[in-house]
Write a structure and sequence with these properties.
The complex is a heterodimer of chains A (about 300) and B (about 325). In chain A, helix 2 crosses helix 15 and helix 8 packs antiparallel against helix 11. The two termini of chain A are about 45 Å apart. By secondary structure, chain A is mostly helical. Chain A has a single domain, classed as MetI-like (MetI-like fold), CATH 1.10.3720. The longest helix of chain A has about 35 residues. By secondary structure, chain B is mostly helical. Chain B has 2 domains: about 80 residues, no CATH class; about 240 residues, MetI-like fold (Orthogonal Bundle), CATH 1.10.3720.10. Helices cover about 70% and strands about 0% of the residues of chain B. Chain B contains 16 helices and 2 strands. The two termini of chain B are about 35 Å apart. The chains are: A mainly alpha (about 300), B mainly alpha (about 325). At the A-B interface, helix 1, helix 2, helix 5, helix 6 and helix 7 of A face helix 3, helix 4, helix 6, helix 7 and helix 8 of B. Chain A: Belongs to the binding-protein-dependent transport system permease family. Chain A: Keywords: Cell membrane, Membrane, Transmembrane, Transmembrane helix, Transport.
Chain lengths: ~300, ~325
């Protein structure tokens, strides 16, 4: 109770006490709901696969093992997919953020002749899009299907990110750019030497959005590159495992059959344990990064939301 | 061929922003002065036209009997055939029903929960605790739908799912429920999964709106003896109204976007009749069955309806004297 009181803070009337206590209890409940699925998955991932089938794994593993992770890391296909995931995240984010920032800089310049035209051309695409099939045919026409570049080029500039960066640059004091101009700085110099360094908070936000989007993407792999195992990503591999176990769920219990077949070996894996281990592997990088950028993305989102 | 044709008419329109009678000349003079800015943006405008506007030209496919082996300009025209087929196909209406139902449920649930949570977060007095709750509530938003769908199907699994275990222990059910096997539960599951994933994230914008409210109003209300709930009802909620209206308008424009990933990943043969939405319909007809024309017709239907919704909502807001998008 002391603890609850401390969280609830100072109050005056009895009404306030009730309100604050209920609120704090609700928030704790909310946190449990948000965290439990992940914690449970971690426990399953660290538990022996055959033991998991017995059920009853909640917050911590019953029979601890690293074997599920070892198994995932031991599969060369999954390792390769991990490399592609990292590559598309790193390259995709760097290229996309740079290009987005550059266009955002140009449409933030009041004197730019095409300011209106470029802005409207981009914003319109938020509401108008050709849809899946025409886009697919275009990719085929451009021979992007079956290449790594289909992960980078079609999504090069996101309109929302463009607006967020533009709003940020427009909020910078004009005098900085004017004095640079008087000193003879061209547009490129102003962009690289002034706009980019000052934009670091918003660049951090947009980078997070783009990187998370790249890392989590599976649909483009599924649509364009499912015939190319060498271009598969971790999320797509996880998606395939999920689809398989969903299918087995509706057509009898294939999961247990699989383990029985390998029964003689001391350590086995099941689709469930592999899925848990992979879920942890693909989620941990993001979970480790986003809390540190919280200050930035809250600001970035608000800026884009209000002005966009 | 087709790639070079569409951009041309649009590419000449920048002549529009000319301000003075000497329009075109002035425009070219300015262009010369702003070579660097043009160099920095035009390559991406070309990218934009190829990747975002050229696909619009593909809409013609919906009025053709499209055969992938032929170039787009040499297809046989089919008139409205595919639209007629679409609107007489009972499956299409089921799909439309699912789409509207799921996006309506997501919209209402999403709004109510995010606004509610934002208000409750704002009422927390211990700022460190508030920060921690916020950080935790943002977490699911950063997970992919593949992961989220995996977590959802694990939580709902018949034998070991936490939902069944809790309901069982509370004595609310006798036999474990196969949640993903009962079609009627699917909309609710998607709604709940969507709330779980996005409620924390969606509070960000509302919390920002709350901080814009003048604190003097709260002080005055306190002096007048208004209770916490009264202050929420008479100050906080009205203060959030402009933001709520704007977001509502934006979301009405996406009324046919009920989401794709969650449905696709949680769908199975048993719940398919309630799970298949427009996007999955397009994917199934277009990519899996190769009926590009019909799939494109369904896609066009979606875009056109969304546009109509967006504009109607916007003009409605205008008439009601509320903030609006454009």
């Amino acid at each position: 109770m002391k603890f609850l009181q401390k969280l609830a803070g100072k109050r005056r009337g009895i009404d306030d006490l009730v309100f604050d206590s209920v609120n704090v209890v609700f928030m704790i409940f909310l946190c449990i709901v948000m965290l439990y699925p992940m914690v449970n998955t971690l426990a399953v991932a660290l538990n022996e696969a055959t033991d998991t089938i017995r059920g009853g794994i909640y917050l911590w593993p019953r029979s601890f093992t690293w074997y599920n992770f070892e198994h995932v890391f031991g599969e060369s296909q999954l390792m390769h997919a991990g490399m592609i995931s990292v590559l598309r995240t790193v390259i995709g984010t760097a290229v996309s953020v740079f290009c987005t920032a550059m266009v955002a800089y140009t449409i933030s310049r009041k004197e730019f002749v095409l300011k209106k035209f470029v802005t409207i051309a981009f914003v319109l695409t938020m509401y108008l899009n050709g849809g899946l099939i025409p886009t697919y045919l275009l990719m085929r026409e451009l021979s992007l299907i079956g290449t790594f570049w289909i992960y980078i080029i079609p999504g090069l500039i996101g309109v929302f990110n463009l607006i967020v960066i533009r709003s940020f640059i427009e909020g910078l004091p004009d005098t900085i750019f004017e004095s640079a101009k008087i000193d003879g700085a061209g547009e490129f110099t102003q962009f690289f030497k002034i706009a980019l360094p000052l934009c670091i908070p918003v660049i951090a936000t947009v980078s997070l959005f783009v990187a998370v989007g790249q890392w989590n993407q599976w649909f483009d792999v599924f649509i364009y590159n499912s015939h190319k195992p060498e271009l598969s990503t971790l999320q797509y591999e996880l998606m395939k495992i999920l689809q398989n176990s969903n299918a087995s769920m509706t057509s009898g219990n294939a999961a247990s059959a699989f383990t029985q077949a390998q029964g003689g070996v001391t350590e086995t894996v099941t689709p469930q344990s592999i899925r848990a281990a992979m879920t942890i592997i693909v989620s941990v990088p993001i979970i480790c990064v986003y809390p540190f950028l919280q200050k930035y993305f809250v600001k970035g989102l608000t800026l884009g939301g209000v002005k966009g | 061929m087709s790639l070079q044709q569409t951009p041309t008419p649009v590419g000449t329109s920048p002549k529009m922003p000319a301000e003075r009678p000497t329009g075109i000349k002035l425009f070219f003079k300015k262009c010369k002065e702003q070579k660097a800015l043009l160099l920095m943006s035009l390559p991406f405008v070309i990218w934009l036209f190829i990747f975002r506007y050229v696909p619009l030209y593909g809409w013609t496919m919906a009025f053709q009997d499209f055969r992938p082996a032929r170039p787009l300009l040499e297809q046989d025209w089919a008139g409205m055939k595919h639209f007629v087929f679409l609107f007489t196909d009972p499956r299409f209406f089921e799909v439309l029903r699912n789409t509207l139902a799921m996006s309506f449920i997501n919209l209402v649930l999403g709004f109510v929960t995010a606004i509610g949570l934002a208000i409750l977060l704002n009422e927390l007095r211990n700022l460190t605790f508030k920060r921690i709750v916020q950080t935790i509530s943002y977490m699911p938003h950063f997970l992919s739908w593949v992961v989220a769908a995996g977590l959802v199907s694990a939580a709902l699994s018949v034998e070991s799912g936490i939902i069944n275990i809790i309901l069982n222990n509370l004595g609310l059910i006798e036999n474990n429920i196969m949640w993903l096997g009962v079609p009627e539960y699917f909309w609710g599951i998607i709604g709940a999964a969507d709330v779980w994933k996005n409620v924390g994230w969606n509070t960000i914008i509302y919390l920002a709106a709350i901080t814009m409210i003048d604190t003097e109003q709260y002080e005055a209300a306190e002096i007048d003896g208004a209770s916490r709930l009264q202050r929420i009802w008479y100050i906080t909620l009205p203060g959030m109204r402009p933001v709520i209206v704007i977001l509502l308008i934006m979301n009405l424009g996406y009324i046919l976007e009920s989401g794709f990933e969650a449905q696709y990943l949680l769908m199975n043969p048993m719940n398919m009749d309630y799970a298949e939405n427009l996007d999955i319909f397009v994917l199934r007809y277009g990519i899996n069955m190769g009926n590009f024309s019909l799939a494109t017709a369904a896609g066009i239907f979606k875009t056109v309806v969304s546009f109509i919704f967006l504009f109607s909502a916007n003009s409605l807001a205008k008439r009601l004297g509320e903030a609006r998008l454009f």
